[in-house]
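During the first year of the project, the team set up a workflow for recording each protein of interest as an amino acid sequence followed immediately by a discrete structure-token representation. This format lets reviewers and collaborators read both layers of information side by side without switching files. As required by the reporting guidelines, we include two representative entries from the current panel. The first entry is reproduced here exactly as it appears in our internal archive.
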Amino acid sequence: MAVRRKQSAVGLAGILGLLLLSACNGPAEAPAEAGAALSVELVSASREPWPELLAASGEVAPWQEASIGAEVGGVRLDEVLVNVGDAVKKGQLLARYNEDTLRADLARADALLAEAAARNAQARADAERADRLESSEAMTRQTIQTYRTTAAAAEAQLASARAQRDTQALKLRYARVVAPDDGVISARSATVGAVSGMGSELFRLLRRNRLEWRAEVPAAALARLAPGMPVSLAALDGSEIAGTLRQLAPMVDTGTRNGLAYVDLPAASGLSAGMYLSGHFKLPGREAMVLPESAVVLRDGNRYLMKIDAQNRVQQLKVQTGRRRQQGIEILDGITPADRFVKSGGAFLNAGDLVQVVGAAGKP
């Protein structure tokens, strides 16, 4: 009997000790949710106005290229003052023809003009005298008419001589070839000592050093473009160049079914005519349902989101994706801003898995 009492006392003392130890250590931590496959952070989709981009490619070309030709013929070219790549100003001297022959022709024209002026003065004086004698009948009507005709012919000859003199003066002026506008010499065929024909091309001038991008755009997309729209080009060195849509071509190419969009480029773009570049037009913004790209899981050629329900279990949701921007991706259908999705690591989960949520759902 004494032994039993002793055992009861020891057992009671042990229970009291455990209770005392539990009281000292505080409440025990709750165990992790049984069977959780993974601890995950959640994210919800957000609606954002995203600009829509229309990709295109095309050639960089001069805005306008002026052809500078010879306006005199049969004269030797004495001097060429510019070369390809030189920047020139309007009115700057580019080349000069030999002026000796042209000056001699001008002197001859001056002499012929003076001779015609003298004949005209004599003929006009004779005609005026005949007019005064007409009433006195001292001269026959036929003689009077002859004087009048001679005066009219002399007047015409004077005008012709004056025109020839002006022509020779212009030829002398055109012996000096000048730039019609500011710009850069893009081609040169002028050679010192050459005797070219009238109209032969001497130089080509890239007017105002102004370039444009001639983008080829599918005909179906032309209606979405409007002058003034911003454009971004990818340069060969990877940099981005901003341009502005100036106008659209009025016709579509019957072979490619593409239309041309003419884009003005900045003067200091660093581009050269003849480059073939890609770029995109920034269309008016369209609202997008956006999630981080890390939330999308690629399986068997399809794209999925790992949706988490109220019981923290995984639902595999097949979706269609659209545009990408920075680290975000557009989800085209099947989701709402209230839905919760696994932000990253969804590839390690399957439908029905239980997860441990470590963070509240936030925006991407």
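The second entry, processed by the same pipeline in the following quarter, appears below.
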Amino acid sequence: MKDEEGNFLEKETHIGHGKMESMAGDPHRIYNTSDIAKYNDVIAICEGEPDAWTAKQCGIPSVGIQGANGWKPHFTDLFKGYEVIYVLADGDEPGMKFATFVAEKLSQARIIPMDPGKDVNKSVSEYGPDFLREKVGM
């Protein structure tokens, strides 16, 4: 969100809706499944499409899950065979709850928390792409 001068707000507010909305009745899907289809030893799971865009732009194969409650049981099978799965956690309570939930489903998962109050996108915007690559050890 932006203020009246066009500057991005530090703290976003979404009254009566989430940050991103789907059509009514639209099932949760994984964003950027093409990175699952490519051969990689590692992949990152992000909460939300914008964080997946950002991680991918940093050179990290990644997918986005639609919201903190977006994980579906059938998603688990898609991640079998990866050496490491980075769960890029938003730096807030719902973000860590999401990351912990996903990590419990995937034995090769490693939770990578962002700084308090930041998600992947805000972290890379503030600290640059090397910040995220270093966080995951790439």
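For the second entry, the following points were noted during internal review. The mean pLDDT is 87. The domain at 30-136 is CATH 3.40.1360.10 (Dna Topoisomerase Vi A Subunit; Chain: A, domain 2). Both points are flagged for discussion at the upcoming steering committee meeting.
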